Amino acid sequence: MDIDFYRNNNISVDLAIEAHDIVRGQLGTEIPGAVVDRHKFPSATVTTVKVVEEQAAQMMGKPVGTYITIEAPAIRDNNRIAQKEVAEVLAQQLSSLFNLPENANILIVGLGNRQATPDSLGPKVVEQTIVTRHLYRYAPEELKGGMRSVSAMAPGVLGITGIESAEIIKGVVERIQPELIIAIDALAAGSVDRIGTTIQIADTGISPGSGIGNKRTGINRETMGVLTIAIGVPTVVNAAIIAQVTLEHFLEKLKTNPMLNQIQQSVMPDYAQGIINDILSPFGGNLMVTPKEVDSLILDTSKIVAGGISMALHPAISTEEYSMYLN
Amino acid sequence: MDIDFYRNNNISVDLAIEAHDIVRGQLGTEIPGAVVDRHKFPSATVTTVKVVEEQAAQMMGKPVGTYITIEAPAIRDNNRIAQKEVAEVLAQQLSSLFNLPENANILIVGLGNRQATPDSLGPKVVEQTIVTRHLYRYAPEELKGGMRSVSAMAPGVLGITGIESAEIIKGVVERIQPELIIAIDALAAGSVDRIGTTIQIADTGISPGSGIGNKRTGINRETMGVLTIAIGVPTVVNAAIIAQVTLEHFLEKLKTNPMLNQIQQSVMPDYAQGIINDILSPFGGNLMVTPKEVDSLILDTSKIVAGGISMALHPAISTEEYSMYLN
Amino acid sequence: MDIDFYRNNNISVDLAIEAHDIVRGQLGTEIPGAVVDRHKFPSATVTTVKVVEEQAAQMMGKPVGTYITIEAPAIRDNNRIAQKEVAEVLAQQLSSLFNLPENANILIVGLGNRQATPDSLGPKVVEQTIVTRHLYRYAPEELKGGMRSVSAMAPGVLGITGIESAEIIKGVVERIQPELIIAIDALAAGSVDRIGTTIQIADTGISPGSGIGNKRTGINRETMGVLTIAIGVPTVVNAAIIAQVTLEHFLEKLKTNPMLNQIQQSVMPDYAQGIINDILSPFGGNLMVTPKEVDSLILDTSKIVAGGISMALHPAISTEEYSMYLN
Amino acid sequence: MDIDFYRNNNISVDLAIEAHDIVRGQLGTEIPGAVVDRHKFPSATVTTVKVVEEQAAQMMGKPVGTYITIEAPAIRDNNRIAQKEVAEVLAQQLSSLFNLPENANILIVGLGNRQATPDSLGPKVVEQTIVTRHLYRYAPEELKGGMRSVSAMAPGVLGITGIESAEIIKGVVERIQPELIIAIDALAAGSVDRIGTTIQIADTGISPGSGIGNKRTGINRETMGVLTIAIGVPTVVNAAIIAQVTLEHFLEKLKTNPMLNQIQQSVMPDYAQGIINDILSPFGGNLMVTPKEVDSLILDTSKIVAGGISMALHPAISTEEYSMYLN
Fold this sequence. Notes:
The structure is a homotetramer.
Chain A: H1 3-8, H2 16-27, E1 34-41, E2 44-51, H3 54-60, E3 65-71, H4 74-77, H5 80-95, E4 105-110, H6 121-128, H7 133-136, H8 141-144, E5 149-153, H9 158-161, H10 165-176, E6 180-189, E7 198-202, H11 221-224, E8 228-238, H12 239-254, H13 258-280, E9 287-291, H14 294-313
Parallel strand pairs in A: 4-5, 4-6, 6-8
Antiparallel strand pairs in A: 1-2, 2-3, 3-7, 7-8, 8-9
Helix pairs in contact in A: 5-14, 6-14, 12-13
């Protein structure tokens, strides 16, 4: 795949692991200033991409920071035992990104549109979250030992509120002063394989243009003034990518024929973009590919994410019990 | 009815017209510092209570300001022609409380819990509201003539977000700086007759302790720094009031018997409160009386309120078309 | 309490245990033809009322059959460990009412109105139910050993569909021919104490006039042609009962005064009903008392009921895992 | 486009107008046994395809019957005045397909999954429908003149109920014996242009394999025993079609180069299908392309369809008022 295609067409690659693989493919070598590490767990593979230097950030189109990708086909497989293991891996990885006292305040933000199923992951996670901030100030000391102070909000989307999500969040953050923000969002992936198999955790928050909704202002440490961890789950692929990849695969096959190989070089730049525009034009870039059973995918994923967050934030919640503490 | 009962029991009388009637009943004369005016329309009666002086405010437990009560049985009667007329009356009365340039920013706030039907009026009105703020800056001048810049939010309730509604709203208000806030809330009435027949508009916003949710911080000009109009619709009556009124009616009937009349004087203070506590104890003061078909009541009312707001804010929306502009 | 009052006013006593206690109170002795048995569990007390003879059925206004009442304050207390125990007790008691082969077909029916929170328990349980009927015919034998064939439906309410629930269910039952129907419904209790503390299981199904919605045709073995177990959970109390009980408590206190005692006898029949009618008239008998936080009550209860059903029907689901198998 | 592709890949072409155009394109002449008629209205073009002979039915893969297609970009344009005109056209066209006495019973069936926005059109239309059957038997004669007896149901989807929609509907139809069924469903179109611009009305009901959910049994006169009109609105395109059309467009462009033209003939059959399978494999054929703002598309469309149905069924509802009669 050609990252220039995405850039030229304003199709964001939300997953750092995909941006990394594209750029490394173009370079033919490891990306200077980016460090990759991989671990295998029974139900998941965890890949950490640390974008250490500004040059790597520029090449990948991703800010300097840590991007953890959990790859787990169990998310899609309706295997609840394995899903529980994925939630534990998520809890563990999430915990590695912050170091907070037990009385810290945490704000959970569910981005996206609760009315449009493929974009409803964030609000669904908020629904499943155990909120304690309002109880916390009255709680006895011994209880506080096991539960942190958590609040949660789903700011809605621009088309429904008339207000950018980042404005709403910033307003609330200024008033309640959390020590950590965890923002959950549905992502657009670069490949159908990613839907329902991948969770990304990033300590860089959410950057302009990411997510399947157009959140134009970033939600990150720079804009919010506090560590902002984003948890993103691919639920759609932009339809333009399906068209693009179809052409690429076709041309790839033509390569085996030497005469055709030469044609590929010449025709591709001329035709590809025009064709995609023709086919998808009525909705601009706003056509999304999503599984027909997206509702059960979103429901299962929201439980994994909400469960993982609860285990990471509240030491008192054991892995045996976590599913009991979903709403 | 005895307002001391409500005060002693922390049962708020949300409607100024009810507070006014109780106090006037106790005084036996008009309340000094409060001015009442009444107009009849085909489908509604409009009563304006102006609390002019602080003394009247103290007696009624309502801040100085203007309280407009629309009484219209049509709200409950599923008569859509009459409901349209009520929306027009609401638009007219609402307009009388503000004087804004055509390019003013207005923030609609839907208070309450979308998950609990009797408390979901505010969020439902937000769903029905035409939001234009995000379009407004790109709209051509001629369009702006007919549509004001409107944004809308439903902040949720403390038990679900862990954050007081007033904190969330204040945060957003500081960032988007509206010239007017209109806050919609489900109210607890002092009588079952009020459910589905009454709309209150108040330029004093929402005061601590009002509404069927406990919104502890006020949402008004004082806290928000801008004119805040509250639109409140009774959807419930506190169960304690049912018990209280039952006893009062019973004792009233006993009065016809002179011997019993004397008993009434002595036993009431001793018994009434204890009985009510006994019966309703498991949920403290938090039991509400609501019609079984509260869902259709809330739906119809939300259309009247959203329609009235749209006609008041957007001169371009005619009364013939208003129902087309509900979402 | 006086069961004649309920009968005269068409207020049903949905719980057999309440009907039993009222009748026994009136008789001053055990009811002939009704057998009561009680067991204590750590988180719940289980009372079984067997209405054995027609005479007892007549007196109690409940058909001949077995009524199991689980009383467990944990349902309301937001204690999830105890709620799990209640689900186990429910599973056990439910299992005692049927004896089915492993390949039996079971139809779960969620009665009530999903749009009105206090009446939404049935549809919520259906949402949480693991449905397997469509998978079952393709499943390998070894899987079938642990999971029965389950289907689920929420027929809606008359005001929204224009069709009686019983008609819809009967039509489906004739086509899919289940060996067992389990119907879940929100009930109206005779006392506020019952809300969020009680679950009733009855092998008599649902009789005309029961439930908080008016389901005029019964849903039981007689109408459906197959064993129909009803699981009912009180979520409301009729407002007329609050008024009635208030008067009764008041008059009870007057009894201590001999002169007043005599008055009670004479005035009660004359006044009580008229007062209640006056106060509640605008909505006839259709005013319900419900806790303000009815949404979380319904959510917690639906998980207990759906979890209990899943454990009773699917031997493969262990009590440790059951909460993982809620949707 | 090549209809063999769709057939080979089990991708249904839900719109008769698309099937017609494909087959006519292949034939190079009008289809024998199919009659096409076109009318223009201010906001819509109406094309009627009558499949008169069995041969035409075979070629088009559509049963003998009348297929009316309303093409109206206004559906997508958020122009509510034009949307009202589309509802009127729909009412008119729908009325042309039935001839019923004023006291006829009509059953509205909303197919699809309310939890998955792109598939939720049917249930949303049911929500907006005015249901009168339960009132009708008590209504005075003069009222009956203007309103027909209408009931409505949303049977849910197989994955959630475990029961095929057709089984549930058939069961209900046998009990309530309607004279007409109107079934509403979201469709999968053959082109992105169709999304939010097209409504199809067919007196052949719904055939196996149609719709975006797999409704394996037909819902039509044959299975239901009564005239069954289907109203279908494309809300998605199968992702395989995007890939297919992309390749076709590309190869079309290659034709201008004579040498390449020859290649096209040879490579297409070998490569195309394999490529599509590769790209979309994880979800089989179940990936759908849908606009990001599918929620507002579904909401607007459901009002047009419900409004059109109400105007067609209830003579008493004028076109001026129809939007007032949406729920």
